[in-house]
Every structure is written in structure tokens, then in C-alpha cells.
Amino acid sequence: MYKNLTTLLFVFVGFTMMFSSCIHKKKMVYAQTASTNLDTLFNYQRTDYKLQVNDIIDVKIVSLDEDVNKLFNSNAAASSAAAQTANLGDLYYITGYNIDDSGNVDLPIIGEVNVLNKTLREAKDVIDKHVLKYFSKYYLVVKLGGIRFSALGEFNRPGKYTILQNQATIFEALALAGDLNMVASRGDIKIIRQYPEGTRIHTLNLLDRNLFHTPYYFIQPNDVIYVEPLKAKSWGVGTNAAQSTVLIMSLISSTLLIIVSFSNLK
User: What pTM does this model have?
Assistant: First the structure.
């Protein structure tokens, strides 16, 4: 009886060690390559983002005429001061101009201007034509009011974030959300992206350098980045050597305790 229990112990521990091995480095290193040449130029598949409903754009007019500046930018200045006083993170939600369901932004003095499905350059040209009706000498600035995205799943800090840039990469988004945790499936990243006709789900492999060649290397406003866990988490085993060792030792101790208990019953 004792010998049979000992045999079962070794079989059990063997299976435990097989399934509780720590996560391999190849499942964690970004942008891997089989080539030893690290000095490689990657050509981007960059696409100009087209503005959609609920996007926020920042529009400013700067003129030598102070009256013009006060007339157009007074509301923005007041909102900016209020946002800073309230210590709000998403500044452009207060100071920018939201694109409504009809695709319009409502600008002070200018009124409604339709910018739906236009690039930033095209939106600036359209707004410029409207501004010319009121002012003659000015400098017009039109840019995205930040890139808002959501980080869900195996992030160290999941949540909603805003990058105050006109362009941002997937790695910048990961960095802002505290990077992925140990059990994140880096080879199977889902980007849920909005399009004028609806929503699409794209899959990225952060372990492969070919990521740089894809059009999804750059995130877009309102992207949802979803990361599933590796099987190691679903099995509930250790994710590194220390955790695996603790798990195995606990199982061995428990099994030995059972063997001793059975032996004492004889």
C-alpha cells in the first residue's frame, strides 16, 4: 500500500511539473525575429484617419487682432482654466469640439461645419472656408483632441486612456496602460475598431516584427484593445519559476501528509 502511494506521488508530481512550468520567454518578448540583423527599416502602412461621430477636434484661430482672438477663443480659454482647476485628465473633452450625430462641429461665431469622414487636412480646409467669411488675417489650427482608447483584459492598469497626440502606436497605448501582465497572450491581441459602416475586430501578434508592416500598428480614436490570458492562467498554475516551485512543494507536502496518514492507519 505504501509503495503504491509513493508511486502515485511521483506520477502526480510529474504531471504537476509538466503543467505548471513557468511561461516561456518566447511568449513574452515583443517584436521577435529570427534574423540577427537588428538594423532593419520597416515601412508603415499609414492611413489618414477620417473623423467620425463623437470624435473631438481642437480648433483655434490666432490673429493679430486681439478682439478676434478673444471673440473666438474666449470660451476655450475659460473651459481650459476650469479643466485645469478641476484637475481633469481629458482636457479636450472640455475645450474641444465634439462631432455630433450629423457629423457637425458647432464653432463659436462660425456655426456648424460638417467634418464627418474627413481627414484632419480636409477638415481644416472646410473650416477655413467658413472662417474666411468672418476674418481676413488669421492662423487656423485643427488637430485631434487626443486619441481615446480602452484597455481591457490582461493589462497591469486596464481602463480608459487619452493620448494627447495626433498619432500613437500600439506600444504607446500598452505603455500608458502599464504594459501587459505576465499571463497576457501577446500573440493574440484584439483591436475592436469603429468604422463609418460599423465595427470590426482585428487580431495582432505583438511577438512578430511584421506587426510594423500592418495598418494596425497605429491605434485610432475609440479603439478597444482587448488581451486574453494564456492557458497558464486558466489552469491556475504558476506564471514564473518561484510560483511554480511553491505550487509543487505545496502539492508534495499535501501528498506526503496523506501518505503518512494512511500509513498510521495500518
Answer: 0.71
